[in-house]
Amino acid sequence: MNLIKSLNISASGLSAERLRMDVISSNIANANSTRTEGGGPYRRQVALLSPRNDRENFQKILDNKVNRLFSCGGVKVSGVVQDSTPFKRVYDPEHPDASEDGYVEYTNVNVMKEMIELMTASRSYEANVTAFNATKSMFSKTLEI
């Protein structure tokens, strides 16, 4: 296994999880926004992750030899998309953004779900840091020989 390639894979995971945490924190910050520049409430965003080398799908990688598993080259953010789940409607006729029938549309952000997503992204980030440090340790041991 190429140690430089494993550092590259860990680095791609670090940058992808960092962007994922940025998107999640933006969702949490706008959890109570009822009005945006484009009109309407804030819509939750989701970062989509995909393999860097998308010529092979996961099944093909599993079918190949074990050393072929590292040929995917890491992960990348393929895009940030808006979640299409419906907005929450709350009856509040006194709110400035209430419709004629007295309902206010709030974001489709569930703060508890976002916190769980943030925890999983943080754990993934920590796992990539651990893998990166293990590879650095292997480099050090190799240089001692």
In short:
This protein is 46% helix and 16% strand. It has 145 residues and is an alpha+beta fold.
Topology of this structure?
Layout: H1 3-29, E1 45-51, H2 58-63, E2 75-82, E3 88-91, E4 103-106, H3 111-144
Antiparallel strand pairs: 1-2, 3-4
Helix pairs in contact: 1-3
What do these coordinates show?
The chain contains three helices and four strands; from the N terminus they run αβαβββα. The two termini are 18 Å apart. Mean pLDDT is 85; it is low at 65-70. The chain is of the alpha+beta class. The relative contact order is 0.22. Helix 1 (3-29) runs antiparallel to helix 3. It has a two-stranded antiparallel ribbon.
Sketch the topology as an H/E string, one letter per element.
HEHEEEH
Q: Determine the oligomeric state from the structure.
A: single chain
Low-pLDDT regions:
65-70
Please summarize the sheet with the most strands. 2 strands, antiparallel
Give the strand order of the largest sheet, numbering strands 1, 2, ... along the chain.
Answer: 1-2
Q: What share of residues are in beta strands? A: 15-25%
Report the strand count: 4
Q: How many helices? A: 3
- The N- to C-terminal Cα distance equals 18 Å
Strand-pairing-aware structural class: alpha+beta
Shape, principal axes of CA atoms: elongated
Characteristic key phrases:
145 residues; two-stranded antiparallel sheet; alpha+beta; 3 helices; 16% strand
